[in-house]
Amino acid sequence: MFCRFNLIVFSPKVTLSGKFFTSIVCYYLPTRGISSFAERIRSSQALKTCEAIPDKCYEHGNYFLFSCDPRKVLVHKETTSDKTKHYRLRGVNYRAVSTVGINVKNDAVFLGLDSDSVSQFALEIPGDEALMERFADSNGRFLGVRKSLFLLPNAESCITSQACSLLSWHKKKMHCPDCGGVLVNFGSSGTKFCQSESCVSNKTKERHHPPINPVGITILSDELNSKVLLVRQPAHLPGMFTCVSGFIEVGESVEDNIRREIAEEVGLDVITTEYVASQHWAFPASRLMLGFHATVKSTEEKIFIDTSELEDAGWFSPDQLRDSLERVKLMASKESSLMPDSDDRKSFCWVPPKGALANTLIRWWLNKFHPEA
Ligand SMILES: [Zn+2]
To answer: What's this model's pTM, rounded to 2 decimal places?
Structure first.
């Protein structure tokens, strides 16, 4: 066991008179291989709040590569012990990215430390075919980010979603919303501040943070948990139904949001709500999906569909849900397409694939109320 290196960071502070100054703070990166979660989080936070990430973190770092337009991520296929092949996120080292004309220390976005205390970065590379081919060897390829979220293991899907959202924000958020001045990175924190000394946000030392838009998503059942209500929007692929969801409005709790969305979209009164799970989702912009289980009195209650948002809605049995999960799992494993072609748009065939929170909620409900013998 060895300590990889001590970490001395230059931490930006603000005096009472409002002046920035830099203090030196010493940290120890966790000893390799025995780092606890808490040690890693504290070291990662120290790096995020320092003025500049130490060169050694870049030089020993792991880089996840993204192309810009369309947004793709570098992955590779790995054969597991059961002889099946799975996509994995592929990281490349500093030498590989610093020798192709990329200004790594300027462009890389720090994501955190992995379980070996190695710094993880997201890096956007120019979308030129020759460069992309150079990184994608015989086993690797650049895969559409949205598709990758359904195909990567959960932990790597989370990293991809985080990286994609941060890269987009850093690229788009260039100007201060108060004065239009130029925003610059605040150390390595992933936040920005306004350079203009006359700007109110500069005077109050306000930092601009990457946005997270909260969305409530609900697996809705009757009180007896005999069936689940799913909905489809016109934009959904043919045959796909999913859980009711919607943006949380200012002033709402998540529970308020769930009651309102279900009342608005299908005209039903919610009796109970229960938190189940959450996840970050990068599309179409950075979202925090908050997954709940809600109940209404009975499947006999009349559904009133809001046709401005929905194309259809209906109650589905545990057997129908299991069939749809199997279909989508099979299609995902074949990778030919995640969804089928179908002329009958409203005929229930599919639910969102694994990786989407709707899929997690449906499997959670089945396992809890209708476990297989
Ligand atoms: Zn400003």
So the answer is: 0.85
